[in-house]
Amino acid sequence: MRALSDIMEEFGRLSGLQLNREKSRVYFSSRCTQQEERAFALGVDRGELPVKYLGVPLTVNYAREQDCHSLVDFAQRRVEGWQAAGLSFGGRIELVRSVIAGITMFWFQSIQVPTATIRKVEAICADFIWRGGMHAISWDQLCRPREEGGVGLRPLRSKAACVKMAWRFIKGGSLWAEWMANRYLRRTNFWACRIDNNFSVTFKAILRCRPVLQTAICRQMKDGTSTDLWLDPWLGSRSLLDLLGGQLDREAGRGLTCSRIIRDGVWRPESYTYTAQLAEEIRLITIDASQAEDTWCWAGPGTGGGSGLFYFRSCYDLVRTHHDLAEVDFIWGKGVARKMQLCAYRLLRGRLMTRDRLLRFGMQIPDAKCVLCNEDDESMGHLFFVCPMTRHIWTEQCAQLREGVGVDRDIRSILSWIRDHRGRDPGWARRARVRLAASVWHIWKERNRRIFEGLTTSLLEFYII
Ligand SMILES: [Zn+2]
Protein backbone atom coordinates (compact mmCIF):
# COMPACT_ATOMS: atom_id res chain seq x y z
CA MET A 1 0.00 0.00 0.00
CA ARG A 2 2.86 2.34 0.80
CA ALA A 3 4.44 1.59 -2.56
CA LEU A 4 1.16 2.36 -4.29
CA SER A 5 0.86 5.59 -2.33
CA ASP A 6 4.42 6.52 -3.28
CA ILE A 7 3.73 5.84 -6.95
CA MET A 8 0.68 8.13 -6.88
CA GLU A 9 2.75 10.85 -5.15
CA GLU A 10 5.52 10.50 -7.72
CA PHE A 11 3.01 10.54 -10.56
CA GLY A 12 1.48 13.72 -9.11
CA ARG A 13 4.87 15.35 -8.78
CA LEU A 14 5.84 14.58 -12.37
CA SER A 15 2.54 15.23 -14.11
CA GLY A 16 1.03 17.88 -11.87
CA LEU A 17 -2.09 15.70 -11.54
CA GLN A 18 -2.66 15.21 -7.82
CA LEU A 19 -4.68 12.35 -6.41
CA ASN A 20 -7.87 13.67 -4.83
CA ARG A 21 -8.29 11.30 -1.88
CA GLU A 22 -11.78 12.59 -1.12
CA LYS A 23 -13.10 11.61 -4.51
CA SER A 24 -11.06 8.43 -4.96
CA ARG A 25 -12.03 4.85 -4.14
CA VAL A 26 -9.92 1.72 -3.94
CA TYR A 27 -11.33 -1.63 -5.11
CA PHE A 28 -10.12 -4.98 -3.81
CA SER A 29 -10.54 -8.44 -5.21
CA SER A 30 -12.69 -10.68 -3.03
CA ARG A 31 -9.63 -12.72 -2.04
CA CYS A 32 -7.83 -9.73 -0.55
CA THR A 33 -7.75 -9.64 3.25
CA GLN A 34 -7.69 -6.65 5.61
CA GLN A 35 -9.38 -4.47 3.07
CA GLU A 36 -10.42 -1.72 5.52
CA GLU A 37 -6.90 -1.43 6.94
CA ARG A 38 -5.34 -1.29 3.52
CA ALA A 39 -7.77 1.36 2.35
CA PHE A 40 -7.04 3.36 5.48
CA ALA A 41 -3.29 3.09 4.83
CA LEU A 42 -3.83 4.51 1.37
CA GLY A 43 -6.01 7.27 2.74
CA VAL A 44 -8.99 6.67 0.45
CA ASP A 45 -12.36 4.98 0.95
CA ARG A 46 -13.05 1.41 -0.06
CA GLY A 47 -15.45 1.01 -3.02
CA GLU A 48 -17.61 -1.93 -4.10
CA LEU A 49 -17.73 -3.44 -7.56
CA PRO A 50 -19.36 -3.03 -10.00
CA VAL A 51 -18.41 0.61 -10.42
CA LYS A 52 -19.51 2.83 -13.28
CA TYR A 53 -16.79 4.12 -15.57
CA LEU A 54 -18.04 6.50 -18.29
CA GLY A 55 -21.50 5.03 -17.64
CA VAL A 56 -20.45 1.42 -18.24
CA PRO A 57 -20.35 -0.93 -15.24
CA LEU A 58 -16.90 -2.35 -14.57
CA THR A 59 -16.95 -5.78 -13.03
CA VAL A 60 -14.80 -8.87 -13.00
CA ASN A 61 -17.83 -11.15 -13.33
CA TYR A 62 -20.72 -11.11 -15.75
CA ALA A 63 -22.55 -7.80 -15.64
CA ARG A 64 -26.00 -8.39 -14.16
CA GLU A 65 -29.22 -6.97 -15.49
CA GLN A 66 -29.49 -4.48 -12.63
CA ASP A 67 -25.98 -3.18 -13.43
CA CYS A 68 -27.10 -2.28 -16.95
CA HIS A 69 -30.18 -0.18 -16.14
CA SER A 70 -28.50 2.88 -17.55
CA LEU A 71 -28.28 1.23 -20.97
CA VAL A 72 -32.05 0.67 -21.02
CA ASP A 73 -32.57 4.22 -19.75
CA PHE A 74 -30.31 5.56 -22.46
CA ALA A 75 -32.32 3.88 -25.22
CA GLN A 76 -35.59 4.97 -23.61
CA ARG A 77 -34.48 8.59 -23.34
CA ARG A 78 -33.22 8.67 -26.90
CA VAL A 79 -36.48 7.50 -28.41
CA GLU A 80 -38.70 9.45 -25.99
CA GLY A 81 -37.07 12.68 -27.06
CA TRP A 82 -38.29 11.96 -30.55
CA GLN A 83 -41.76 10.56 -29.86
CA ALA A 84 -43.51 13.85 -30.43
CA ALA A 85 -41.60 14.77 -33.56
CA GLY A 86 -44.03 12.90 -35.84
CA LEU A 87 -41.33 10.98 -37.65
CA SER A 88 -42.14 8.81 -40.65
CA PHE A 89 -41.47 5.07 -40.60
CA GLY A 90 -38.17 5.72 -42.40
CA GLY A 91 -37.23 8.44 -39.91
CA ARG A 92 -37.93 6.11 -37.00
CA ILE A 93 -35.79 3.39 -38.57
CA GLU A 94 -32.92 5.85 -38.99
CA LEU A 95 -33.22 7.02 -35.40
CA VAL A 96 -33.15 3.45 -34.10
CA ARG A 97 -30.13 2.83 -36.27
CA SER A 98 -28.32 5.71 -34.55
CA VAL A 99 -29.36 4.49 -31.08
CA ILE A 100 -28.04 1.01 -31.86
CA ALA A 101 -24.82 2.36 -33.33
CA GLY A 102 -24.23 4.45 -30.20
CA ILE A 103 -24.79 1.49 -27.93
CA THR A 104 -22.79 -1.08 -29.87
CA MET A 105 -19.84 1.20 -30.31
CA PHE A 106 -19.57 1.86 -26.62
CA TRP A 107 -21.19 -0.74 -24.40
CA PHE A 108 -20.84 -3.92 -26.37
CA GLN A 109 -17.16 -3.38 -26.96
CA SER A 110 -16.55 -2.92 -23.26
CA ILE A 111 -18.58 -5.58 -21.45
CA GLN A 112 -20.73 -8.66 -22.01
CA VAL A 113 -24.24 -7.20 -21.88
CA PRO A 114 -26.82 -9.56 -20.32
CA THR A 115 -29.42 -11.04 -22.67
CA ALA A 116 -32.32 -9.66 -20.61
CA THR A 117 -30.97 -6.12 -21.10
CA ILE A 118 -30.54 -6.68 -24.83
CA ARG A 119 -34.15 -7.87 -25.09
CA LYS A 120 -35.39 -4.77 -23.25
CA VAL A 121 -33.48 -2.38 -25.53
CA GLU A 122 -34.69 -4.25 -28.61
CA ALA A 123 -38.28 -4.04 -27.36
CA ILE A 124 -37.91 -0.27 -26.82
CA CYS A 125 -36.55 0.16 -30.36
CA ALA A 126 -39.21 -2.07 -31.93
CA ASP A 127 -42.05 -0.34 -30.03
CA PHE A 128 -40.73 2.99 -31.20
CA ILE A 129 -40.59 1.85 -34.83
CA TRP A 130 -44.19 0.60 -34.69
CA ARG A 131 -45.36 3.51 -32.47
CA GLY A 132 -46.26 1.17 -29.65
CA GLY A 133 -48.73 -0.70 -31.89
CA MET A 134 -48.52 -4.08 -33.49
CA HIS A 135 -45.10 -5.11 -34.82
CA ALA A 136 -45.96 -5.73 -38.46
CA ILE A 137 -42.45 -7.04 -39.22
CA SER A 138 -40.46 -8.88 -36.59
CA TRP A 139 -37.31 -7.38 -35.12
CA ASP A 140 -35.18 -10.22 -36.51
CA GLN A 141 -36.57 -9.58 -39.99
CA LEU A 142 -35.85 -5.84 -39.77
CA CYS A 143 -32.31 -6.65 -38.73
CA ARG A 144 -31.45 -8.42 -41.95
CA PRO A 145 -29.53 -6.63 -44.70
CA ARG A 146 -31.77 -5.07 -47.34
CA GLU A 147 -30.83 -7.57 -50.02
CA GLU A 148 -31.93 -10.34 -47.69
CA GLY A 149 -35.33 -8.87 -46.97
CA GLY A 150 -34.68 -6.56 -44.00
CA VAL A 151 -34.14 -2.84 -43.62
CA GLY A 152 -30.47 -3.13 -42.71
CA LEU A 153 -30.63 -2.51 -38.95
CA ARG A 154 -27.87 -4.19 -37.00
CA PRO A 155 -28.98 -6.52 -34.21
CA LEU A 156 -27.65 -5.81 -30.73
CA ARG A 157 -26.97 -9.46 -30.13
CA SER A 158 -23.99 -9.94 -32.38
CA LYS A 159 -20.58 -11.43 -31.87
CA ALA A 160 -19.03 -8.67 -33.97
CA ALA A 161 -18.24 -6.36 -31.02
CA CYS A 162 -16.44 -9.20 -29.29
CA VAL A 163 -14.48 -10.12 -32.42
CA LYS A 164 -13.44 -6.47 -32.65
CA MET A 165 -12.19 -6.66 -29.08
CA ALA A 166 -10.22 -9.83 -29.94
CA TRP A 167 -8.78 -8.04 -32.98
CA ARG A 168 -7.68 -5.09 -30.83
CA PHE A 169 -6.07 -7.56 -28.48
CA ILE A 170 -3.98 -9.43 -31.07
CA LYS A 171 -3.11 -6.19 -32.85
CA GLY A 172 -1.57 -4.96 -29.59
CA GLY A 173 -0.12 -1.50 -29.21
CA SER A 174 -2.37 -0.50 -26.32
CA LEU A 175 -1.87 -0.56 -22.58
CA TRP A 176 -5.00 -2.68 -22.24
CA ALA A 177 -3.73 -5.36 -24.65
CA GLU A 178 -0.33 -5.40 -22.98
CA TRP A 179 -1.86 -5.72 -19.54
CA MET A 180 -4.18 -8.55 -20.64
CA ALA A 181 -1.35 -10.42 -22.35
CA ASN A 182 0.83 -10.02 -19.27
CA ARG A 183 -1.88 -11.24 -16.98
CA TYR A 184 -3.15 -14.23 -18.94
CA LEU A 185 -0.58 -15.22 -21.54
CA ARG A 186 2.70 -15.04 -19.76
CA ARG A 187 3.59 -18.67 -20.34
CA THR A 188 1.42 -19.52 -23.28
CA ASN A 189 0.43 -18.45 -26.75
CA PHE A 190 -2.88 -16.72 -27.52
CA TRP A 191 -3.81 -19.29 -30.16
CA ALA A 192 -2.92 -22.32 -28.08
CA CYS A 193 -4.16 -21.05 -24.72
CA ARG A 194 -6.87 -23.16 -23.02
CA ILE A 195 -9.83 -21.31 -21.55
CA ASP A 196 -9.38 -21.28 -17.80
CA ASN A 197 -12.12 -20.66 -15.25
CA ASN A 198 -9.97 -18.08 -13.54
CA PHE A 199 -9.85 -15.86 -16.61
CA SER A 200 -12.03 -12.76 -16.67
CA VAL A 201 -15.33 -12.86 -18.54
CA THR A 202 -13.95 -10.52 -21.18
CA PHE A 203 -10.84 -12.55 -21.82
CA LYS A 204 -12.83 -15.78 -22.03
CA ALA A 205 -15.11 -14.12 -24.59
CA ILE A 206 -12.07 -12.96 -26.56
CA LEU A 207 -10.62 -16.47 -26.59
CA ARG A 208 -13.92 -17.88 -27.83
CA CYS A 209 -13.67 -15.56 -30.84
CA ARG A 210 -10.46 -17.20 -32.04
CA PRO A 211 -12.02 -19.54 -34.64
CA VAL A 212 -13.90 -16.61 -36.26
CA LEU A 213 -10.92 -14.30 -36.01
CA GLN A 214 -8.67 -16.89 -37.60
CA THR A 215 -10.76 -16.94 -40.77
CA ALA A 216 -10.51 -13.18 -41.23
CA ILE A 217 -6.88 -12.36 -40.60
CA CYS A 218 -3.58 -12.98 -42.27
CA ARG A 219 -0.01 -12.50 -41.14
CA GLN A 220 2.19 -10.02 -42.92
CA MET A 221 5.76 -11.22 -42.51
CA LYS A 222 8.83 -9.09 -42.10
CA ASP A 223 11.53 -11.24 -40.54
CA GLY A 224 9.41 -13.70 -38.54
CA THR A 225 10.82 -12.68 -35.15
CA SER A 226 7.41 -11.95 -33.62
CA THR A 227 5.53 -14.89 -35.14
CA ASP A 228 5.38 -18.21 -33.32
CA LEU A 229 6.53 -20.89 -35.74
CA TRP A 230 4.21 -23.66 -34.54
CA LEU A 231 1.28 -21.95 -32.90
CA ASP A 232 0.42 -18.70 -34.70
CA PRO A 233 -1.97 -19.17 -37.65
CA TRP A 234 0.34 -17.60 -40.21
CA LEU A 235 -0.21 -20.21 -42.97
CA GLY A 236 -3.44 -19.08 -44.57
CA SER A 237 -5.59 -19.16 -41.47
CA ARG A 238 -3.90 -22.17 -39.87
CA SER A 239 -0.86 -22.84 -37.76
CA LEU A 240 1.97 -25.16 -38.69
CA LEU A 241 1.03 -27.51 -35.88
CA ASP A 242 -2.54 -27.58 -37.18
CA LEU A 243 -1.40 -28.43 -40.69
CA LEU A 244 0.90 -31.18 -39.56
CA GLY A 245 -1.85 -32.75 -37.50
CA GLY A 246 -0.09 -32.34 -34.17
CA GLN A 247 2.82 -34.62 -35.06
CA LEU A 248 5.28 -32.44 -33.20
CA ASP A 249 6.26 -32.30 -29.62
CA ARG A 250 4.89 -28.98 -28.39
CA GLU A 251 7.53 -28.66 -25.71
CA ALA A 252 10.40 -29.02 -28.17
CA GLY A 253 9.00 -26.32 -30.42
CA ARG A 254 8.04 -23.86 -27.70
CA GLY A 255 9.20 -20.34 -28.26
CA LEU A 256 10.56 -20.91 -31.78
CA THR A 257 9.70 -18.12 -34.15
CA CYS A 258 9.41 -17.98 -37.93
CA SER A 259 12.77 -16.22 -38.03
CA ARG A 260 14.19 -19.77 -37.84
CA ILE A 261 13.06 -20.41 -41.39
CA ILE A 262 13.70 -16.95 -42.85
CA ARG A 263 17.23 -16.03 -43.75
CA ASP A 264 18.19 -12.76 -45.45
CA GLY A 265 14.59 -12.10 -46.38
CA VAL A 266 14.12 -15.52 -48.02
CA TRP A 267 12.16 -18.53 -46.79
CA ARG A 268 14.25 -21.57 -45.78
CA PRO A 269 11.55 -24.00 -44.65
CA GLU A 270 13.54 -27.22 -45.25
CA SER A 271 14.63 -27.92 -41.72
CA TYR A 272 11.24 -27.68 -40.03
CA THR A 273 8.59 -29.00 -42.37
CA TYR A 274 7.69 -32.50 -43.37
CA THR A 275 6.26 -32.31 -46.82
CA ALA A 276 7.64 -30.75 -49.95
CA GLN A 277 4.19 -29.36 -50.69
CA LEU A 278 4.08 -27.48 -47.42
CA ALA A 279 7.55 -26.09 -48.02
CA GLU A 280 6.35 -24.90 -51.40
CA GLU A 281 3.34 -23.19 -49.85
CA ILE A 282 5.55 -21.42 -47.36
CA ARG A 283 7.84 -20.15 -50.09
CA LEU A 284 4.82 -18.50 -51.74
CA ILE A 285 4.14 -16.30 -48.70
CA THR A 286 5.33 -12.76 -49.32
CA ILE A 287 8.00 -11.31 -47.08
CA ASP A 288 7.67 -7.57 -46.74
CA ALA A 289 10.95 -6.18 -45.45
CA SER A 290 9.63 -2.62 -45.53
CA GLN A 291 7.48 -3.18 -42.44
CA ALA A 292 8.52 -2.50 -38.88
CA GLU A 293 7.66 -6.04 -37.75
CA ASP A 294 5.35 -8.97 -38.48
CA THR A 295 1.75 -7.78 -38.18
CA TRP A 296 -1.78 -9.11 -38.38
CA CYS A 297 -3.90 -7.78 -41.23
CA TRP A 298 -7.67 -7.83 -41.42
CA ALA A 299 -8.78 -9.66 -44.55
CA GLY A 300 -12.45 -10.22 -43.70
CA PRO A 301 -15.33 -10.15 -46.21
CA GLY A 302 -15.70 -7.03 -48.32
CA THR A 303 -12.21 -5.69 -47.68
CA GLY A 304 -10.66 -7.26 -50.75
CA GLY A 305 -7.63 -8.04 -48.61
CA GLY A 306 -6.32 -4.60 -49.52
CA SER A 307 -5.42 -2.27 -46.68
CA GLY A 308 -5.41 -4.77 -43.82
CA LEU A 309 -7.41 -2.29 -41.74
CA PHE A 310 -10.30 -3.43 -39.61
CA TYR A 311 -13.84 -2.57 -40.74
CA PHE A 312 -16.74 -3.20 -38.40
CA ARG A 313 -19.07 -3.81 -41.33
CA SER A 314 -16.78 -6.54 -42.61
CA CYS A 315 -16.56 -8.05 -39.15
CA TYR A 316 -20.35 -8.01 -38.76
CA ASP A 317 -20.75 -9.65 -42.15
CA LEU A 318 -18.43 -12.39 -41.00
CA VAL A 319 -20.38 -13.33 -37.89
CA ARG A 320 -24.00 -12.71 -38.86
CA THR A 321 -26.48 -15.31 -40.06
CA HIS A 322 -26.86 -15.17 -43.80
CA HIS A 323 -30.29 -15.54 -45.39
CA ASP A 324 -31.34 -16.23 -48.93
CA LEU A 325 -31.34 -13.25 -51.21
CA ALA A 326 -34.77 -11.68 -51.33
CA GLU A 327 -36.39 -10.17 -54.37
CA VAL A 328 -37.00 -6.96 -52.48
CA ASP A 329 -33.44 -5.81 -53.00
CA PHE A 330 -34.49 -4.07 -56.18
CA ILE A 331 -36.39 -1.48 -54.16
CA TRP A 332 -33.27 -0.29 -52.43
CA GLY A 333 -31.47 1.50 -55.20
CA LYS A 334 -30.17 5.02 -55.48
CA GLY A 335 -32.50 7.81 -56.55
CA VAL A 336 -35.53 6.87 -54.43
CA ALA A 337 -36.28 8.61 -51.15
CA ARG A 338 -35.91 6.34 -48.13
CA LYS A 339 -39.52 6.90 -46.97
CA MET A 340 -40.74 5.72 -50.38
CA GLN A 341 -38.47 2.69 -50.35
CA LEU A 342 -39.71 1.67 -46.93
CA CYS A 343 -43.35 2.08 -47.94
CA ALA A 344 -42.79 -0.13 -51.00
CA TYR A 345 -40.90 -2.57 -48.77
CA ARG A 346 -43.86 -2.87 -46.41
CA LEU A 347 -46.26 -3.34 -49.32
CA LEU A 348 -44.04 -6.02 -50.80
CA ARG A 349 -43.99 -7.88 -47.50
CA GLY A 350 -47.76 -7.43 -47.19
CA ARG A 351 -47.35 -5.46 -43.97
CA LEU A 352 -49.16 -2.17 -44.53
CA MET A 353 -52.03 -1.76 -42.07
CA THR A 354 -54.97 -1.64 -44.46
CA ARG A 355 -58.51 -1.90 -43.09
CA ASP A 356 -58.93 -5.61 -43.87
CA ARG A 357 -55.87 -6.37 -41.75
CA LEU A 358 -56.98 -4.11 -38.93
CA LEU A 359 -60.30 -5.98 -38.82
CA ARG A 360 -58.51 -9.31 -38.90
CA PHE A 361 -56.51 -8.24 -35.88
CA GLY A 362 -59.75 -7.46 -34.06
CA MET A 363 -59.50 -3.66 -34.13
CA GLN A 364 -62.59 -1.48 -34.03
CA ILE A 365 -62.84 0.68 -37.14
CA PRO A 366 -65.92 2.58 -38.31
CA ASP A 367 -65.78 1.51 -41.93
CA ALA A 368 -64.05 -1.21 -43.96
CA LYS A 369 -64.52 0.49 -47.32
CA CYS A 370 -61.71 1.86 -49.46
CA VAL A 371 -61.51 5.61 -48.88
CA LEU A 372 -60.46 6.35 -52.43
CA CYS A 373 -63.46 4.83 -54.24
CA ASN A 374 -65.88 3.99 -51.42
CA GLU A 375 -66.94 0.91 -53.37
CA ASP A 376 -64.99 -2.13 -52.30
CA ASP A 377 -63.43 -3.19 -49.03
CA GLU A 378 -59.92 -1.92 -48.50
CA SER A 379 -57.08 -4.40 -48.85
CA MET A 380 -53.54 -3.98 -50.14
CA GLY A 381 -54.49 -5.63 -53.43
CA HIS A 382 -57.51 -3.41 -53.90
CA LEU A 383 -55.99 -0.14 -52.73
CA PHE A 384 -52.88 -0.30 -54.85
CA PHE A 385 -53.83 -2.24 -57.95
CA VAL A 386 -57.59 -2.77 -58.36
CA CYS A 387 -59.19 0.43 -57.10
CA PRO A 388 -60.42 2.48 -60.09
CA MET A 389 -58.75 5.58 -58.59
CA THR A 390 -55.32 4.01 -58.49
CA ARG A 391 -55.58 2.11 -61.77
CA HIS A 392 -55.39 5.50 -63.46
CA ILE A 393 -52.04 6.06 -61.87
CA TRP A 394 -50.54 2.84 -63.15
CA THR A 395 -51.95 3.39 -66.64
CA GLU A 396 -50.37 6.82 -66.67
CA GLN A 397 -47.07 5.54 -65.31
CA CYS A 398 -46.91 2.84 -67.98
CA ALA A 399 -47.66 5.38 -70.66
CA GLN A 400 -44.80 7.51 -69.38
CA LEU A 401 -42.48 4.53 -69.47
CA ARG A 402 -43.66 3.50 -72.93
CA GLU A 403 -44.04 -0.10 -71.85
CA GLY A 404 -47.16 -2.13 -71.34
CA VAL A 405 -47.78 -3.79 -68.02
CA GLY A 406 -51.00 -5.21 -66.66
CA VAL A 407 -52.08 -2.79 -63.96
CA ASP A 408 -53.93 -5.37 -61.95
CA ARG A 409 -50.74 -7.12 -60.99
CA ASP A 410 -49.19 -7.08 -57.57
CA ILE A 411 -46.01 -5.24 -56.66
CA ARG A 412 -43.93 -8.41 -56.79
CA SER A 413 -44.64 -9.05 -60.45
CA ILE A 414 -44.13 -5.39 -61.33
CA LEU A 415 -40.73 -5.52 -59.66
CA SER A 416 -39.67 -8.63 -61.52
CA TRP A 417 -40.96 -7.10 -64.73
CA ILE A 418 -38.72 -4.08 -64.16
CA ARG A 419 -35.86 -6.32 -63.17
CA ASP A 420 -36.16 -8.30 -66.41
CA HIS A 421 -35.65 -5.06 -68.31
CA ARG A 422 -32.69 -3.99 -66.25
CA GLY A 423 -30.08 -5.60 -68.45
CA ARG A 424 -31.54 -4.08 -71.58
CA ASP A 425 -31.72 -0.52 -70.34
CA PRO A 426 -30.49 0.27 -66.81
CA GLY A 427 -31.57 3.90 -67.08
CA TRP A 428 -35.11 2.90 -67.94
CA ALA A 429 -35.22 0.37 -65.08
CA ARG A 430 -34.07 3.03 -62.63
CA ARG A 431 -36.80 5.44 -63.78
CA ALA A 432 -39.37 2.68 -63.55
CA ARG A 433 -38.30 1.83 -60.02
CA VAL A 434 -38.51 5.46 -58.95
CA ARG A 435 -42.01 5.72 -60.43
CA LEU A 436 -43.13 2.52 -58.76
CA ALA A 437 -41.90 3.50 -55.29
CA ALA A 438 -43.21 7.07 -55.62
CA SER A 439 -46.63 5.89 -56.80
CA VAL A 440 -46.96 3.44 -53.94
CA TRP A 441 -45.97 6.10 -51.45
CA HIS A 442 -48.36 8.72 -52.83
CA ILE A 443 -51.26 6.30 -52.85
CA TRP A 444 -50.59 5.31 -49.25
CA LYS A 445 -50.16 8.94 -48.21
CA GLU A 446 -53.37 9.96 -49.93
CA ARG A 447 -55.23 7.13 -48.23
CA ASN A 448 -53.88 8.19 -44.82
CA ARG A 449 -54.64 11.84 -45.45
CA ARG A 450 -58.25 11.01 -46.25
CA ILE A 451 -58.65 8.78 -43.20
CA PHE A 452 -56.77 10.76 -40.56
CA GLU A 453 -57.06 14.34 -41.74
CA GLY A 454 -60.22 14.25 -43.84
CA LEU A 455 -58.36 15.87 -46.75
CA THR A 456 -58.35 14.91 -50.40
CA THR A 457 -55.77 15.64 -53.04
CA SER A 458 -56.37 15.61 -56.73
CA LEU A 459 -54.90 12.36 -57.97
CA LEU A 460 -53.44 14.32 -60.86
CA GLU A 461 -50.58 15.11 -58.51
CA PHE A 462 -49.31 11.59 -59.00
CA TYR A 463 -48.65 12.07 -62.66
CA ILE A 464 -46.06 14.73 -62.08
CA ILE A 465 -43.28 12.48 -60.94
ZN1 LIG B 1 -60.90 1.76 -53.93
Automatic annotation (TrEMBL):
Pfam families: zf-RVT (PF13966). InterPro entries: RVT-Znf (IPR026960). Residues 310-394 form the Reverse transcriptase zinc-binding domain. This is Reverse transcriptase zinc-binding domain-containing protein.
